[in-house]
From TrEMBL:
PANTHER family for the chain: AAA+ ATPASE DOMAIN-CONTAINING PROTEIN (PTHR45641:SF1), TETRATRICOPEPTIDE REPEAT PROTEIN (AFU_ORTHOLOGUE AFUA_6G03870) (PTHR45641)
Pfam families the UniProt entry points to: TPR_12
SMART domains named among the record's database cross-references: TPR (SM00028)
Keyword Acyltransferase in annotation: no
TPR repeats: from-to residues: 310-343, 352-385
NHL repeat extents: 67-106
Protein name: Uncharacterized protein
InterPro entries xref list: NHL_repeat, P-loop_NTPase, TPR-like_helical_dom_sf, TPR_rpt
Keywords assigned by UniProt, alphabetized: Repeat, TPR repeat
Length: 411
């Protein structure tokens, strides 16, 4: 749509019907447009990410190339929001797999950054109301693919207390018993979820009802302890002898400590996405805060030469450059470069971006000879990896070389 015109649009890609072809899309999960107008499209129903050049009839599949849903690192399941950083790294909210996965610019195999381990139970959250006068009994059955094996999950979040409940509690209990007894295939496992802390009377009653009474204590049961995001290590609560003793009578096959809250411990690993977004909207102080939180988290979880840490250095350098704190920006770019020299092949695209960034710093400091030297290194890398002249990194490099030469001519 043209600016100020929300009524008449122009189709830049796709047909009018859903499909799996290279010229078709099916389902809108998310969209990102880079500085050169290239569109990255989350084709959710086809479980893939497309790279689209406007008005070109076919697209390139850049993630989940086989188009089938799955949980392997080269597959997606109902992808949603996406983001592409200045290095060409693609970040995908892989909704069906409850994770955020990162794809480097030259790879169709991703790396899982965050596993959102059912941070909400099922697809919606049960409400509890002090004025409850009834229950609404519902449940959802859905399938989950994990490492190529299909699991059926039954989510009872719909056993829902609320002031607008329409089923009396005793009737809801009858329906629950009928539901469990009517399942002829039985249950392989029962998952209890309890917030970390004191074992409550309601938890004891639920355990007695589900496990001991309805399932006769024969089905394996696992306890998921939520709200452990601030513990270090995360299983700190369960290692406490008093807590272990309190749980012993319940006979759980295993206890898992984690977070069932949006944010929590996993929020530290989402900081790179937050920082990227705040850089885009030029909220640089907020972006710097998110980047440093991400760096702190990554330094705890990964080796000093890990690419996640290198990417954090890059993002912090970008922010300091935007804030015109060039010495600090240069120091972080150099930290990134040191990791790249240890971990990347000699002619890798990311070297070119780093050299371009360092050249920009020297240009801003009016050290033009050094700027052109690093621009030359960037150009050599881009030629070695066969970037097209229309690539945004090549265009940006050409613009900086031109502006540097113009500044030299005016000295």
């Amino acid at each position: 749509y043209g600016e100020g015109n929300g009524t008449t649009g122009t189709i830049v890609f796709g047909e009018t019907t859903c499909g799996q072809g290279a010229d078709q899309i099916c389902g809108a999960g998310g969209l990102f447009v880079d500085r050169q107008g290239i569109i990255y499209y989350s084709d959710s129903s086809n479980n893939r990410i497309l790279k689209i050049t406007p008005f070109v009839s076919t697209a390139t599949i850049v993630a989940s190339t086989n188009g089938s849903f799955g949980s392997m690192t080269n597959q997606l399941n109902n992808p949603g929001a996406i983001y592409v950083d200045m290095n060409g790294t693609l970040y995908v909210a892989d909704r069906g797999n409850f994770r955020i996965i990162m794809f480097p610019s030259d790879s169709s195999t991703g790396t899982v950054l965050v596993v959102l381990a059912f941070y909400h139970t099922g697809k919606k959250v049960a409400t509890v109301d002090d004025g409850a006068n009834g229950c609404t009994f519902k449940f959802e059955t859905y399938q989950c693919d994990y490492n190529g094996e299909l699991f059926e999950l039954i989510d009872t979040v719909g056993l829902n207390e609320g002031s607008k409940g329409t089923v009396k509690p005793k009737d809801a209990m009858k329906m629950l018993i009928k539901f469990i007894k009517g399942n002829k295939r039985g249950f392989s496992c029962v998952l209890f979820v309890m917030p970390k802390g004191r074992i409550t009377e309601s938890f004891e009653k639920n355990h007695m009802l589900f496990y001991q009474t309805l399932l006769n204590g024969k089905t394996p049961a696992i306890l998921f302890l939520s709200h452990c995001e601030s513990d270090e290590p995360m299983n700190k609560w369960i290692t406490n002898e008093e807590n272990k003793t309190a749980l012993a009578p319940y006979g759980f096959s295993d206890v898992v400590c984690g977070t069932a809250q949006e944010g929590g411990r996993f929020a530290q690993l989402i900081e790179p996405l937050r920082s990227a977004l705040t850089i885009q909207i030029e909220e640089y102080n907020d972006a710097l805060l998110y980047c440093k939180k991400a760096l702190e988290s990554f330094e705890k979880h990964f080796s000093a030469d890990h690419r996640y840490i290198a990417n954090c250095y890059c993002n912090i350098g970008v922010i300091y450059c935007k804030l015109k704190q060039y010495d600090l920006a240069l120091s972080y770019y150099e930290k990134q470069l040191n990791i790249q020299l240890k971990t990347l092949p000699a002619y890798h695209f990311e070297f070119g971006v780093t050299y371009l960034n360092i050249g920009e710093i020297y240009e801003a400091r009016s050290e033009f000879d050094l700027a052109l030297s690093f621009y030359s290194k960037a150009n050599e890398i881009f030629q070695k990896v066969s970037l097209l002249p229309t690539h945004e990194a090549v265009i940006e490099l050409q613009q900086h070389v031109q502006s540097t030469n113009e500044k030299i001519s005016h000295e």
